Amino acid sequence: MFGGFSNSVRGASHEANGLVCQDHSAYEVHEHYAIAVIADGHGSKKYFRSHLGSEFAAKAALETVQRFYADPEKFEANFPEHHKLILKNIEKQIIVNWNARVKQHLESNPVRPDEMKKFTTEEFKSIQPESYYGTTLVVAVATKKCTFGVQIGDGSLVAIFDDGTPVMPMNYDESAPANMTASMCNSNAVSMFNSFYVPDRKLIAVYTSSDGLFTSFSNEDDFLEYHQIITSQLVNIESFENAVRKNMEKRSHFGTEDDISLACIYDTDLIRESSDLLKKKIAENKAMAAQRKKERLAALKNDFSDATE
Predict the structure, then answer these.
(1) Helix H or strand E segment including 28
(2) Nearest-CA neighbor of 56 among 1, 12, 85, 97?
(3) Three-class secondary structure of residue 102 per DSSP
(4) pLDDT of residue 303
(5) Sheet harboring 156-161: ordered strands across?
(6) What are 81-125's pLDDT values in tens digits?
(7) What are the residue ranges of helices labelled H in the chain?
(8) In angstroms, how far is the first alpha carbon of the chain from the final one?
(9) Low-confidence ranges of the chain (pLDDT < 50)
(10) How far is CA 203 from CA 71, 90, 128, 138, in A?
(11) Of the options 3.30.365.10, 3.30.70.20, 3.60.40.10, 3.40.50.720, the CATH number for the domain spanning 2-273
């Protein structure tokens, strides 16, 4: 049985400037699968409807995966052998669904004068309408037999399997030319996705997050350990959700100042069974972190000594 949660908090810089949260997060738990999604709307002025674009992206992902899972037995029978092709089709259908939502919204809600006033006439004419809604997207899906995901643009996906170690199975590698953001709004968006597929491994939990969370940490090790710590708290989900939201708000206000989104799906049985394992891993990580700190201080001391000789 799966469980899940999702949270998006407005960044401190957005609050200070009177801007809405441009992130969107969601999760769904179904009989045969669970899905966690986050979308992070772009901040530049030409993406002035990106807060809607991120919502449309999350909804497009949820609807697309649900459509592919309309016949669970057929999907799960075909997926192992044809997962690369099926993942590509999922990515294409997410883009098609998102573009349809954007088109429908734009037809019902033409650009307003107050939205145009930030641009010169020539600047506005040069912007493709889809760009108004530009956003990234990260999707994670857990089933009884496998875990998979797709991503376009920045953001992170962290999975914790039954060995208790947090990993990033989908290395972020923006497939975009220089000076171009990998985005749902790009004409070649479908070629900019990354994906992963992990069969036959028991999943404890998988997380999707916007880059506002990653940049609130000083390094990747701390970022991964954070997911391990919060996974150990999922057994008390009622009290946990409020605590993690407060932590995200704190990280935004005293760190990145960006919007932060986090969505998670997890195996409720494995969470309980893995409690002792996770506590052991967390203790080991604390010892390793202390050792890393000691080594950094020693290196700084040596650098200082060399500079003064």
Answers:
(1) strand 23-29
(2) 97
(3) helix
(4) 57
(5) 2-9, 260-267, 203-209, 156-161, 166-167
(6) 999 999 999 999 999 999 999 999 999 999 999 999 999 999 999
(7) 12-16, 50-68, 72-108, 113-116, 121-125, 211-214, 220-232, 237-251, 268-273, 275-308
(8) 63
(9) 175-178, 304, 307
(10) 23, 22, 41, 18
(11) 3.60.40.10
240-280 tens-digit pLDDT = 888 899 999 999 888 778 999 999 999 999 999 999 999 99
- Spell out the residues 6+ positions from residue 12 whose beta carbon is closer than 8 angstroms to its own: 252, 253, 257
Name residue 103's amino acid: K
Estimate the crossing angle of helix 72-108 against helix 50-68, to 10 degrees: 150
* Spans of all domains in the chain: 2-273, 275-309
Q: What is the pLDDT of residue 178?
A: 47
CA distance 267 to 36: 13
